[in-house]
Amino acid sequence: MGNFKPPPNYDSVEFPPEKRKLKVIPNQPLTVGHQQKLPKMPRMVYLMRGPETVHNKLIHKQYGIRALQGGALKAGHFRAIRDTVNRKIDDKRMFAVWRVDAPWQSATKKGTGHRMGGGKGNIDHYKTPIKKGRIIFEVGGTMEYGEVLHILELAANKMPFKSEPVSQEYLEAEIIREEREEKENINPFSFEYCVKNNMLNCRKWLSPYDYKWFNKVR
Q: Taking Cα atoms as reference points, which of 159, 38, 33, 15 lies closest to residue 89?
């Protein structure tokens, strides 16, 4: 009886009013008004550094894909993920929704054999920066986790960075486990303690991000 798990309450599942499969994502942002040429942007690497503090929870409280490191999604990645998920799910009792924006950040590239100099290159493609812990998309409906696990694993393999399938129960258990480990840890020499006390002159080799996240996120 201790291992008994009650069946999920399917009556509380709310299906989206629009299309139940992943939508088509445009390859580049749309122009507004008389604007005909989209601007070039800097790399802005900070958009891919650190943990995601906003979009790191499941809205529909069921299943999804979570990024394990920072990176960027191009239009080809969106297309591969959409084709994989839409081909596998049963839209009569399942649905899938994006949790990331369409590609908006421009990336430039110079042609092959082009000499250095001459200013910034032409726009090659657009991408969406992702931080660690960001939920990429969610899957829900009247089904068990085992039914969609292989779909989520296939989609995770299409990512240009490490990602993993997650469920609402897994995320809740992860928070409890982290709190318990922090409370029961009897070793005082943590990474944070060594940094704050400059153990073995470690500050000589640290970056500003080590002071900010204490080696939990790069």
A: 15
Gyration radius of the chain over CA positions: 21
Per the structure, the complete domain to which residue 154 belongs is given by: 10-185
- Residue 182 and residue 148: Cα distance in Å, rounded? 33
Considering the domain architecture, whether residues 117 and 132 belong to the same structural domain is answered as yes
The verdict on 150 and 198 lying in the same domain is no
Distance CA 94, CA 88 (A): 10
Q: What is the distance between the alpha carbons of residues 96 and 19, in angstroms, rounded to a whole number?
A: 9
Q: CB of 84 within 8 A of CB of 153?
A: no
Whether 5 is in a domain gets the answer no
pTM higher than 0.90 = no
pLDDT tens digits for 145-202?
999 999 999 999 999 999 999 999 999 999 999 999 989 988 888 888 999 999 999 9
